[in-house]
Amino acid sequence: MNTLRFTAGEPAVEITRVAPRLWHALDDDRVTGRAEATTRPDGRVFLSIDAWHRSVFDQLVRTMLATLPEPLHTVVDETDHELLAAWREAGLTVRRREWEYVVPTRVTGPALPPPGVTLVPAGAAEDGPLREVDRVVRAEVEAAVGWHEMPAEVLVRPGDTIVDPTKYAAAAEDGEYVGLIRVVQVTRLPRIGLVAVRTSRRRRGIARALLVHSLGVLHRAGIETASAEVNEANEAATALFEGLGARRANSTLELVRHGR
């Protein structure tokens, strides 16, 4: 738990815009804080500030809010109480919570896909059908709750979200892919970045089979746990992961300041 994010003191700083969406706080030409605004592929603008002093944070955030069009977003570890309070005092409010799960790779219980469904291991999925099912499930999510309700993902470019097909396993039925899962390893702890099944094929155990399959691959490689992020409001995903023994390790809040 980070209970002392900001150090004491009120340094006199000058806020300088060094790029269209990048600001520095300068104290006698020494950088004492940085602020940046980044646009995600879905169009949302997210703010981030790195400052040791609360007064520097406040000056940077005021500059950003006065310059950028709203709505504006940020994400904060829920246990970082000082940072959360600073963003709230700047006028941002909590929009949603994402749970970070630690998922054991050793799973007991049913693991087979339903009859007629075949699992295609990561690295063996065909590129065209994989991209097609990715487009379909994203369109279905967008038409329902909206893709902005899914865990935040950093994508290389809009419109083509599968950057590395070898990271995906798929579920095939009747000659087409009906579900997919992505597992990436950005640190020593692999991350389950996406589990998705076409709307017409849900509630048959395909998502569970994909997840158990991928966890089994990790387990056989000597990896005991993986991580996953789940929107608190996504009851189906929460039940899926907790049903496999996943435990909540942390939570992240997304905050937003709406246009006036």
From TrEMBL:
Signal sequence, renumbered to the chain: none
PROSITE patterns (alphabetical): GNAT
Limits of the N-acetyltransferase domain: 117-260
TM region(s), chain numbering: none
InterPro entries per UniProt: Acyl_CoA_acyltransferase, GNAT_dom
Any Pfam family matching the protein: Acetyltransf_1
Organism of origin: Amycolatopsis carbonis
Protein's name according to its UniProt entry: GNAT family N-acetyltransferase
GO MF entries: acyltransferase activity, transferring groups other than amino-acyl groups
